[in-house]
Amino acid sequence: MPTEHPGLHAHAWMTKRSGEPSNDRTDQQHGQASRWLPAHRGLRACLWLGVLLLVLGFAFQGTRGLWNTDEGRYVDNALQMVDSGNYLVPAYNADHLNFSKPPLVLWAIAASVRVMGKTTWAVRTPSALAFVLTALLLCGMGRVLVPERPWLPGLIYGCSLAPFIAANVVSTDDLLALCEALAMWGFLRAGFGAAGERRGFALHVMWLGFGLAFLTKGPPGLLPLLAIVVFIARRDGMKALRGYFPWSGMLLFGVLGFAWYAVVILRTPGLFDYFMKYEVFDRVFTSVQGRNPQWYGWLVAYGPVFVLGTLPWWPAVLPELKAAVLPASWRGWWREPSLPLFLGLWLALPLFVFCIARSRLPVYALPLFIPVSLMVALALRSRLDLASWRQRVALGLWVAALLAFKGGVALHAHPLSDDRVFARQLSALTGNADYSAVAFVEATDSSVSMEEHTPWGMRLYLDKPIYALSWSPQGARLAQEVCRLSVRHPSLLLVVDDASSEALTSDLTALSARFPGVSSARLGSWRRSNVVLLRRRNAPAAASACVPQPEVRS
User: Fold this and answer.
1) How far, in whole angstroms, is CA 391 from its chain's centroid?
2) Which of 184, 315, 432, 505 is deepest in the core (most CB within 10 A)?
3) Which residues, other chains included, contact 110 with Cβ-Cβ below 8 Å and sequence gap of 6+?
4) DSSP assigned state of 66
């Protein structure tokens, strides 16, 4: 365990890169200066930062509708939990289960809905809150790494374009970033904190964060552990690793991270194989999900995120950025392992895994903005001074630009995937028609296609369950599926794409012949689909044959 403060090493590294003189005496004086800074100044700055983060995170959160498909899926699953009372098993509806993600983000959305109601504001509150708390945890890391300006890493994260935009999107990645920030705050306190600190408590916080990260997104939540293991092994030796894996911390991690998996695997046959094959092997080694799987897909997915998402900061640290990618810099850090090596590993190792995996989306890189913010803070610690009115004005203009961008998109952008617009259009078409559920029928035999194309988020605005049915010439006909839904929902709205309409007509005819109590009426066309209202006046005689059996859906 180092006894000196890590900020001394970081300052020496940054000043050498920027051309400033550096020696042990000046570094020691810099470290001593940070000790007599009044504590209330740092606290006041963090409080002001908290106010700014609340504005950035929560402004216009309820203005923009849900954009499918990811936002809609998470919201639909959370609403299914609220409506059914089953918070253990994620599901789109009573028929189709969904184990593609662990449930922590769904629990957060469901809790927000239970408190604030079924509104767009409520379902986005967990993302905005995670954004604020992640930035504040970065302030906690700043107390360890840049004690003279502890608020700086949080300010950099909060005003970076990518985290700011992600805070307005319902996803797992905001919560994952928060959990990883909690874990790494614990590690930084344990691995870089001053001698005599409560190292045991910090390590338990670390494993608490990793347990919650695993419950948020599974194995990707543990990627920062790669950096911890490599760094500690290099700095302190392999034997020192045992000190970072206390049995009580591992127990805490196991209970939080694996208890839910154990319960649902025992209750659901075939689920373990599904997790290992589809959610782990296929995501890493196959292109089954179609998310930038090309050999150059990593550049498409992550290049713009780091170039645009780190604005406005990276132009100010361009000299340090150029030096940091040189092999000579890495060789120097490896020879003298300290904070720069750890931050570099924290960024590089997870990014390498993201690049070689065949499933790639820009939002996956969001947790990497935590080490990026720390790197930028170390580079700007001697140059960014908000006592300067010019820097205050520049920051104010950037914050105003962020809010204007967010408000403009929320008020004026209505893409083809806006579920609130979809719900309004469909309600206008159906008028006063009474129905208790909506089923979308697509001409496909691909479960991935159905998941991607079904506007699940309409459930928030229609307050009705959403179903997805498939039809293909080689597959089973729709009559049985529609029959099953008609047992559960006496009035059902069918939205059928043009390619499936002919099949639906024949299936409805067969259904009416089989169950005379079932009638159908075409209400019109909507978005290249036919809208049909199906009613069941009396319970079918063979209702038991139509009761659906739950199936696992990716």
Assistant:
1) 32
2) 184
3) 78, 79, 81, 82, 87
4) P
Q: How far is CA 376 from CA 202, 314, 448, in A?
A: 24, 8, 39
Contacts 24+ apart (CB under 8 A), 310-313: 310/160, 310/161, 310/162, 310/369, 310/372, 310/376, 311/160, 311/161, 312/159, 312/161, 312/398, 313/156, 313/159, 313/160, 313/376, 313/380
DSSP 456: T
- Strand partners of residue 518: 536
CA 463, 468, 469, 473 dihedral sign is: positive
DSSP codes of every residue in 158-194 = HHSHHHHHHTTS-SSHHHHHHHHHHHHHHHHHHHHSP
Q: What is the pLDDT along the chain (554 residues), one digit of tens a residue?
A: 443 444 434 444 444 443 344 444 334 434 443 443 445 566 778 888 999 999 999 999 999 999 877 899 999 999 999 999 999 999 999 989 999 999 999 999 999 999 999 999 999 999 999 999 999 999 999 988 888 899 999 999 999 999 999 999 999 999 999 999 999 999 999 998 766 567 899 999 999 999 999 999 999 999 999 999 999 999 999 999 999 999 999 999 999 999 999 999 999 999 999 999 888 888 888 888 778 889 899 999 999 999 999 999 999 898 888 888 889 889 999 998 989 999 999 999 999 999 999 999 999 999 999 999 999 999 999 888 877 889 999 999 999 999 999 999 988 877 778 899 999 999 999 988 889 999 998 887 777 778 888 999 999 999 999 999 887 665 556 667 777 787 888 889 999 887 666 666 666 666 666 656 677 788 888 888 889 898 877 654 445 445 444 545 44
Q: Hey, is 308 helix, strand or coil?
A: helix
| Contacts (Cβ under 8 Å, ≥6 apart) of 448 | 288, 289, 290, 554
Q: Angle, to 10 degrees, between the axis of helix 24-36 and the axis of helix 6-17?
A: 120
Is-contact 137 144, C-beta < 8 A? no
Residues belonging to the chain: 554
Contact indicator for 250, 207 with CB cutoff of 8 Å:
yes
* Alpha-carbon span 219 to 141, nearest angstrom: 24
Beta strands in 21-84 (DSSP E): none
**Which tokens hold the place of 327?**
């092999």
Say how far apart CA 147 and CA 46 lie, in whole Å: 12
pTM, to two decimals: 0.88
What's the one-letter identity of residue 317? V
Distance from C-alpha of 185 to C-alpha of 45, rounded to nearest angstrom: 19
Is the Cα torsion angle 320, 322, 325, 329 positive or negative in sign?
Answer: negative
**In the beta sheet, which residues pair with residue 483?**
none
Q: 101: Cβ–Cβ under 8 A, 6 or more apart, which residues?
A: 74, 90, 172, 217, 218
